[in-house]
Amino acid sequence: SLEAWEGTPTPTALHEEVGPPLALPEHAPAEVLGDVVHRCFHVLGTNCIHLERLAPIVSDVLDEVHLDALSSAVAGFEAWLSRRFSPIAIRREVPVVSRDDVGTVWNGTVDVLVETPDGFWILDHKTDTIYRPIEEHLRKHVPQLEAYRTMIEAATGRPVLGVAIHWVRLG
User: Fold this and answer.
1) Rounded Cα gap, residues 171 and 166, in angstroms
2) Is residue 9 over pLDDT 60?
3) Three-state SS string across the chain, please?
4) Rounded to whole angstroms, how far apart are CA atoms 141 and 164?
5) Is-contact 78 46, C-beta < 8 A?
6) For residue 6, what are the contacts with CB-CB under 8 A and spacing of at least 6?
7) Spatial distance between the Cα atoms of 158 and 137, rounded to a whole number of angstroms
8) pLDDT tens digits, residue range 45-97?
9) Among positive and negative, which fits the CA dihedral 47, 138, 108, 95?
10) Under 8 Å between Cβ of 1 and 171
């Protein structure tokens, strides 16, 4: 499930289904699970490691059933990216850094940066357990994504057309 907003920093949710809901194990700490899921979206999405080689690396967090489901979710997400954006390029885990007017250095990592002929889209995977209405959860992440927007626009001189949160558990 994807919630997105275009143009202005005010989040006007545009809901799109990316794939079926994804069940994730409850035994792992949220931070560890989030990190593993992010890495799986990265390495499986870029085909830089095969599933059978990934399994032993993540086996303490994801069993075979959960990893297979996650692999299917990644494939569905990748297909959706291509259909939705007709991208020129898709970059994952993009480091960003900037300095504000008072000299504070800000940095982060954009999960997915989609380049289109007209500009960029920023997508962020979230593994939070969330419930409807989703707007409350969405507002919590607006400052992070708007900071990414500012950094990408400053670094590239091109517009960010929109930002989106991919709620992994919702599909």
Assistant:
1) 8
2) no
3) CEEEEECCCCCCCEEECCCCCCCCCCCCCHHHHHHHHHHHHHHHHCCCCCHHHHHHHHCCCCCHHHHHHHHHHHHHHHHHHHHHHCCCEEEEEEEEEEECCCCCEEEEEEEEEEEECCEEEEEEEECCCCCCCCHHHHHHHHHHHHHHHHHHHHHHCCCEEEEEEEEHHHC
4) 10
5) no
6) 12, 14, 161, 162
7) 28
8) 888 778 888 899 999 999 999 999 999 999 999 999 999 999 999 999 999 99
9) positive
10) yes
Please indicate, yes or no, whether the overall pTM of this predicted structure exceeds 0.85.
Answer: yes
Greatest C-alpha distance within the chain: 49
Sheet with 105-116, strands from edge to edge, namely 14-16, 2-6, 160-167, 119-126, 105-116, 89-99
